[in-house]
Amino acid sequence: MDVRIAGLDSPLFSTLQHIMDFTDEPDKSFNAPTRTYVRDAKAMASTPADVKEYPNSYVFVVDMPGLKSGDIKVQVEDDNVLLITGERKREEEKEGAKYVRMERRVGKFMRKFVLPENANVEAISAVCQDGVLTVTVEKLPPPEPKKPKTIEVKIA
After folding, report:
1. Which of 2, 81, 89, 146 is deepest in the core (most CB within 10 A)?
2. How is the beta sheet containing 119-129 ordered, strand by strand?
3. How confident is the model over 65-78, as pLDDT tens digits?
4. What residue ranges define each of the domains in the chain, with the CATH number in brackets?
5. Which residues form the SHSP domain (predicted)?
């Protein structure tokens, strides 16, 4: 419907008409999240983690049930984002066996953490024991305070 026919020529009504026409367009895919984004968002939401700060380090503790150390990746992206990923695959069904109930989580595990400025990305260690991953990021030493610069005053 053209708003000018109804006698509504104000800028507000023409903007509303533009928005209404815009939403009728068949190509709405540019607003829809990608499958990868949705999968990663679900993985992040369902991967519990604790973050602790110690005087000399940051420690990230992440539950990774049923994963072996070879199934877990710990990476640093963009110089300050700690990325922890892993994937647990569904067990192969054995002959004659069927699931009565399936509650254990399968699929991708993922967490991202933005590291503080004083995190030393060159000194990161990771240990997985009993399904719990512990990632330790050492802190950089605090910068030395700048000493005041003394300027010699000359007699003219």
Report:
1. 81
2. 49-53, 57-63, 132-139, 119-129
3. 778 778 899 999 99
4. 50-91+104-141 (2.60.40.790)
5. 40-156
